[in-house]
Amino acid sequence: MAYLATGCQDDALDVVQDGMLDFVRRYAAKPVEEWRPLFHRVLQSRITDWHRRKTVRSRFRGWFGIGGEDGDDGSDPVESYADPRGDTPASELLNRELGERLEKVVKQLPLRQQQAFLLRAWEGLDVAHTAVAMKCSEGSVKTHYFRAVNALRNVLEEYR
């Protein structure tokens, strides 16, 4: 979730780490069954904070004429090894395209729809726990999730 929100593995790990530390400080004494939605609430707050900081940093960079982030050559030595599952290049390409397309579409969803979709579909939270994590009503969760799923279906229709 943090990676989809930030688009950078390092930033995502920082967001999750900050969220975990804050979660432990605030909610360690809570019952275990309440931890999951509470952690997601803290994580969503950290993601929102990250977006706010990024906006402010971008403004300052623009004002002072500072360039973008440090370049990364993007090479990964693990990618050069053979696939132990034996997938064909064609199926691997189709799966990669679908994954990239899905990631792009999820990133384009409005933040609340993105949160509802990720918490419900990927994290497996029920409506009540998602509402607690998002600090909204259960009806609002259902609406955001429905709109997100419809948007994803419309854009990803060709992969059905």
Q: Tally the beta strands.
A: 0
Question: Given the structure, what is the number of helices?
Answer: 7
Helix-strand makeup class: mainly alpha
* Low-confidence region ranges: 68-73
Kindly provide the radius of gyration, computed on alpha-carbon positions and rounded to a whole number of angstroms: 18 Å
Number of domains: 1
- Termini Cα gap: 24 Å
Tell me, rounded to a whole number, the average pLDDT. Answer: 81
Q: What is the CATH third-level topology name?
A: Butyryl-CoA Dehydrogenase, subunit A, domain 3
Instruction: Give the name of the CATH architecture.
Output: Up-down Bundle
Largest sheet: none
- Provide the succession of SSEs: HHHHHHH
* Estimated share of beta-strand residues: under 5%
Shape: globular
Please identify which CATH superfamily we are dealing with. PhyR, sigma-like (SL) domain
CATH hierarchy, class: Mainly Alpha
Helix content: over 70%
